[in-house]
Structures are given as structure tokens and as C-alpha cells.
Amino acid sequence: MNIKLRFLGAAGNVTGSCYFVEANGLRLLVDCGLYQERELRARNWEPFAIPPKTLDAVLLTHAHLDHCGLLPKLVREGFHGPIYCTGATADIARIMLTDSAEIQREDAAFKRKRHEREGRRGPYPEVPLYSTDDVKACLPLFSAVAYSKPVQAGDGVTATFYDAGHVLGSAMIELVVRANGGTRRLLFSGDIGRWDKPILRDPTTFEQADYVVVESTYGDRLHDRRSPSARLAAIINEAVQRRGNIVIPSFALERSQELVYCLNLLLEQGLIPDILVFLDSPTAASITEVFGRHSDLYDDETKALISQGRDPFDFPALTVVRTPSQSKAINNIAGSAVIIAGSGMCTGGRIKHHLVRNIHRPESTVLFVGYQAAGTLGRQIVDGALQVRILGLEYPVRARIEMIEGFSGHADRDELFRWLSALRAPPVRVFVVHGEPATALRFADFVAGRTGWKTSVPAYAEEVTLE
Q1: Domain 3-221+409-466 CATH superfamily
Q2: Separation of alpha carbons 144 and 447, rounded Å
Q3: What CA–CA distance (Å, rounded) separates 348 from 257?
């Protein structure tokens, strides 16, 4: 049998996850994600490398936009097959994609006006990638599947979704191809979560696979093993003493819910003073409601909290901000406040407005709690930029900049290796993806050095034939 595998995204970079598989006449994509790095965003407007109408199905690992964000464009350009994913992923993707369409509409209008005023053109079209109508056309194609229940994707091809422990509903996908009396197992890691994290169960491990496509976001470093809660408490207490705000760019999915969970416990334990907490993200608020509908996916500790009648995602000091006017009103708060807003890499959304109000204030703190891809505003700030461009204007960076990697939903190098090491026999080949070039290469070398396995870091658009 011959299986073709082509790397159409998250190859040589972190975002834009997309892999094309052709086997037994079946043509499918694993993920169809949005590019978020500044220098790669133009790819979002390019025609798909595989004509959408020729695809039979999409297998979606989870609802982060760098994995699902181009699905409405795929459907608008001719795809009409099923989009297989977990029920929680389907529910969250509806929210994420609708929000994405609205943000693109607002951003395109803003940039169009600014570029007209400045007499120039941007590097990519000043039009939205897709509309909310495109999102609505996409949603009926979602087909919910349960963990560990094989789905017949095509003749002799089954796909099984397993809990990845990364975000609610996230999955690793095992693709089994049977032909000519033989069987091949392809394992797509998606984004691998971490062990012993709050809210979600630990990542699933596997005993066998012929080919593995594994992420490497943090493949060349280790997370701080100290308690992220203790560090968060220290940062908040310091900012309160300076009478500054704590501005936290946060992903609407998972990271915002984990922060609220953690702040709830810190307030209960008296480890931080009574302080106003604003979740300024309608998307995060809607996703938190989805969490309540899928509490069966929680780990035992979170289920125990709920059994005691405690809501891990609500407390008296928390204000969930829905409207733009409510968001603007945060600026009138005297004293310190914790402001959690999207997007996590500062690429759009309300976080930019809060940065405009706070990044030049020495008494305020900008706290990052997630990965910042190269070329994003968040990465510029984390890397120590003295001045940054936000909403078309330049601002000096005078706020205190902090980073807590312990909140990351991505496995680090040793956790990635722990996941791979569960395989009882060497795979034929391990493909290392979803990492910056140097990081992916270092992780591939690390795995090969420890195991002797054949590893490689595929290039963008590279195609391989799996025998």
C-alpha cells in the first residue's frame, strides 16, 4: 500500500496546522488552521494547495484557530464533506470561528481606513478572509465523535480520536489504513497537553504506531516546575503595591478558564488581596459555558469541586465583560485590577486596547501565560522591545513584563518525550512539526539521540510516500 502525506501547515513554523493524507483513494485533511505569524499571514489568502472540492473529509484535533481557523474558507471554496471532531470541539469551534469572522471584519475595516489615511497598502488584502455567513455554512458539516470510538472515514480507513489533555475536547488522532492484507497506523499528536494539570485529564499515550506526526512547540525547553499559582500570586501582589493593573493576554479557550480557576483558589486561600478580576472576552465567557456542558471531560479533582457545590469558574470578584462599553468602562476603575483579555498572542481583539492603556505605565504589569509565536505582537513584547506598534500607533514599553510558562497547555521537551516513549516498538519514522525551525530540529535530534529512531523535520509543502 502507498499512503501520501503532505505537510501544508505548521511545518517550519508553529501555526497554520494542516496535513493532507491520501490513502485507499480517500483524500482528507488533518486540521485546517489559520496562520498567525505576521510574516506568514499572507498564506491565509492563498488558494488551497489541494482543491477543496476534491477532499472527502477533515479530521479536526481541536478548536484553537491555528488548527480550525480556515475551515469556513475551505467550505466557501468547495469542500462539502464531514468535519470529524469531538462534541466539545464542535461546540467551541462554532464560537471561535464566529468570533474570528467578526474580528476579521473589524480589523479589515480599521486597516483599510488607516492605510487610506497613510496612502499605502498592507502586505495582504484588506478584506476579511470569511464572513459570519461563511461560518454558518461551515457549521452543519461538523460531525461529533466520541473518544476511543473508531470512525469509518473511507474504504479500509478508520480514524479514532483520543483525549490529548490540551484543551477541552482536544484529540490525538490515530489513522489506521488497511489494504492488501497489510495495516499501517499513523498517529497525529495534535497539541499534546500536560500531566497533572487542573481541569483536564492527562494526555493519552500509545503503545504502537508506524508513523508519528508530533508537535514540538516547546521541544527544546523545559517548563518551570514551580507552582504557577504561587508565581501568579507574587506578580499580582507586587502590582497591587504599585497600584498598577495586571493585564493578561489570554487564549479564550482553556487558558482563560484555567486562570479564573486559579484566581478563585488564590482568593479563597487569602494569598492575594480582594481585587477586581475582569474576563474581558465574550468568546471566553461563551466557551466557559461550554465547559459546563461537558463536565464529563474534567479530571477527578475538578469533578470533586463540583460535587461540593463549588463553581470553579465563578467567584464574587469576577466580572464577565460582554459589550464594548463595559470593556471601555474598565478604564475608569481606580486602583488595581486583573484584566484577562484575548487574544493570547496580542494579534487582535480587546487585549490591544488594554495594552494601549497600560503598556506605557511603569506601575502596570503585562503578564504572558502562553506561547508567543515569532512575528506576533506578544513575541515582540516578550523579547524585550522598547517600543511597539499597536492599532497603528507607536507606544513605549514601560510596564513590567512577566511570563509564566507553567500555565502552558503544551507539553515541554521531556513531556513530549514521555509521550513518545510509551511506544513499545520503534516507529518507522517520526515527523516533527508545529515548532519554530530551530526548536523542531533540536527536538528531532533529541529524540533520535535518545532512541535511535528515524526522525525528520518536514518542510512546508513537502510530500512523502509512506510505504
Answers
A1: Ribonuclease Z/Hydroxyacylglutathione hydrolase-like (3.60.15.10)
A2: 34
A3: 19
Location of C-alpha cell 484557530: 65
| Ordered per-residue pLDDT tens for the chain, 467 residues | 689 999 999 999 999 999 999 999 999 999 999 998 888 999 999 999 999 999 999 999 999 999 999 999 999 999 999 999 999 999 999 999 999 998 888 777 776 676 666 666 666 667 889 999 999 999 999 999 999 999 999 999 999 999 999 999 999 999 999 998 899 999 999 999 999 999 999 999 999 999 999 999 999 999 988 889 999 999 999 999 999 999 999 988 889 999 999 999 999 999 999 999 999 999 999 999 999 999 999 999 999 988 998 888 999 999 999 999 999 999 888 889 999 998 899 988 899 999 999 999 999 999 999 889 888 999 999 999 999 999 989 999 999 999 998 898 999 999 999 999 999 999 999 999 999 999 999 999 999 999 999 999 999 999 999 98
Q: What is the dihedral of CA 311, 317, 323, 324, to 10 degrees?
A: -140
Task: Give me the residues paired with residue 28 across strands.
Answer: 21, 57
**Angstrom distance (rounded) from CA 335 to CA 244:** 7
Of 394, 438, 452, 428, residue with least CA distance to 213: 428
Rounded CA-CA distance 275/266 in Å is: 11
Q: Which three cell numbers stand for residue 27?
A: 483524500
Of residues 95, 92, 56, 91, the one with CA closest to residue 74? 56
Q: How far apart are CA 330 and CA 208, in angstroms?
A: 52
Distance separating alpha carbons of residues 374 and 15, to the nearest angstrom: 10
Q: What is the DSSP string of 182-237?
A: EEEEEEE--S---TT-SSBPPPP--S--SEEEEE-TBTT-----S-HHHHHHHHHH
- Say how far apart CA 337 and CA 335 lie, in whole Å: 7
Beta strand 26-30 with 18-23 is: antiparallel
Judged by DSSP in three states, 311 sits in coil
Cell of 442: 533540536
Nearest in space to 444 (alpha carbons), one of 434, 457, 435: 457
Cα gap 36→123, rounded to integer Å: 14
Contact yes or no for 20/49 (Cβ under 8 A): yes
Q: Does domain 228-407 have CATH number 3.40.50.10890?
A: yes
Domain boundaries, the chain: 3-221+409-466, 228-407
